[in-house]
Amino acid sequence: xxxxxxxxxxVHVLSAIIGIGATFLFPVxxxxxxxxxxxxxTLTLMKKAENYPKVGGIFLILSGLIMGFLNPTYFxxxxxxxxxxxxxxxxxxxxxxxxxxxxxxxxxxMAANGEEIPNEYKVVEKTTQPxxxxxxxxxxxxxxxxxxxxx
Length: 151
Fold this sequence. Notes:
Layout: H1 4-32, H2 36-49, H3 51-70, H4 78-111, H5 119-148
């Protein structure tokens, strides 16, 4: 019979794939548009896909915390607490900084005409791209910590 803990691990891994996996693709999408039509399509597609990281992230953190409460010694391990702290950092980088900046410029893009990508978008994209790259790197570090449990 499958244990509750094994089911939590399964939920945790699937949530990571669904939630974090999608976020690795978003920076690629935002830089791939070569004209306004492509950019509008990309932003529309990203809007439809944004629930995957949100829902996946919620299940990811909840399943991780439940596993921690089932095994309280996890909270004394650097790989576990460090991953939690890094996860919070990623959430702040993405939702509080990058997405907030992007949300201000999306209406400008959607209202624009022609094929030229608005300069306002280009400026925001250049400032958010490094944030997404840092968040992706932190995501990789979290995965390494979770799999290898080095500390």
